[in-house]
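new request in #modeling-help
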Amino acid sequence: MSAQSKKAHNFIQSLIEDAIAKGEHTGKVVTRFPPEPNGYLHIGHAKSICLNFGIAETFGGECNLRFDDTNPEKENQEYIDAIKRDVSWLGYEWAGDVRYASDYFDAIYDFAVELIEKGKAYVCALTAEEMSEYRGSLREPGKNSPYRDRPVAENLQLFRDMRDGKFANGELVLRAKIDMASPNINLRDPILYRIRYASHHQTGDKWCIYPMYDFTHPISDAMEGITHSLCTLEFEDHRPLYDWVLENISGPCHPRQIEFARLNLNYTVTSKRKLKRLVDEGFVDSWDDPRMPTISGMRRRGYTPESIRTFCDMVGVNKAGGTVDVGMLEHAIREDLNTRAPRAMCVMRPLKVTLTNYPEDKTETLELPVHPQDPTMGAREVPWTRELYIDREDFVEEPPRKWKRLAPDQAVRLRGGYVMTCRQIIRDDSGQIVELKCEYDPATLGVNPEGYKPNGVIHWVSATDSVEADINVYDRLFLHENPDSDRERDFTDHLNPESLVRLEKVRAEKSLGHPRADLPYQFEREGYFFFDEAASESGRLVFNRTVTLRDSWGQGKG
Ligand code: ATP
Ligand code: MG
């Protein structure tokens, strides 16, 4: 056994190790990640990416990025670009150039001709309805198409004519001649090629026939010398067809298909088709809306590549499907950010405080650590002035027992600053509290006060030397744990109307005026927040809430 991984073992890795040990596998391990460019990548794809690139890495092999582009009507360049960006951002490098199944259209066509010549494929003129009728069902065998025994020469001619544009969309198809009575419906003479007059993003108008996924995929794998073709469980029943194709063409090699369970996450959907509906129907702003379970949405929300990779590791790879708690994903990002996120203060619901005994024109510059446990991250300058803001929720007139924040005639410490005591409440005409007059204790910077004890520590910013920002407070996109499962109602009925709450004109400490764009901040006592560079182009300073501070995942599990 050669390769050892630092990560948890998965069954695919063990399988390959065994094959190497027994001498059944020699040479490089080559895998591929094969997205269809018909949408943006989501967290489910991340699992497949981590697995395919991870296996290659573990065995010192290679992983290709190949676009499975056989449906030109649904595909486009925007998706291709986004997918490349996301794979790179996750930290993976594909071997050589990006590949496209369409690179192999000529070869695939030639293999189809080979099958026809061997009497293993035929051109069929059944309509779609007839075809499904002839296909039979799980209980009943299918019936042979009346075109099944067309002579080879006629098939060759018709297939050429299909390619040359002599027939209309859908008029003819090329089918494999396998077994209409097979218990596996995928083997009941599946379609290999169909006519589609559609311009293709890579091949333009060269083709008006396009190969089906089940025919394209094994051939593309073989053309690239893939050794292990890892795919999700729904393709298990297609494996006999995958193998049939490779056994019946004179391809360069025969990769091994291995299936694993899809990743499903609760409180969201992981299907490009459904995610596309959310975008197209305006339920979210875009594919990279931070509420989306897309890689690009998660990036904008503040998820790090490390946290996504850790999460995929935690989920593991197995044969049994299931739904993973989104709390686990949130746990992964908290763990990562807790050790790395710079700290800052931001007051979400500003309430003005005037320190009556602090000089009007004075400013002190306090030095606060960027990270309390990591001195190597340095210090930040936070101005202390006569007028400050605290959070409205950190003050009550009639404190409950054990109140840990500010109340009339009570004292709190302002994080990294002095202790102050509330002396007077100022209200506007409607009775709303608009300001607190407080006294600060000049002897309390970094030391406990003499003779009294502050209630607790709250965050704050200078009122006169801070910056204004807007905050997008994101919550789960769906209220239903499994929005897909409701047979009565559309999944969009379960959207959370409060998945985005926008807080405007919050006050952030001065250092946030030029925020880092590489890592979210921990806003003390509030959560993790990531600078939204795109949204901030308008001149506003915008932060997205990545996740709250409180972690409930794994509670009650010892
Ligand atoms: P969707 O249903 O979201 O459209 P898909 O399977 O059609 O997904 P592809 O672009 O064909 O999307 O997927 C590329 C690769 O990612 C495939 O190998 C597929 O098996 C894998 N994949 C897709 N969704 C998941 C998931 N939820 N969990 C694990 N792997 C996935
Ligand atoms: Mg697909």
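bot summary: Residues 36 surround magnesium ion (ligand 2) (CB under 6 Å).
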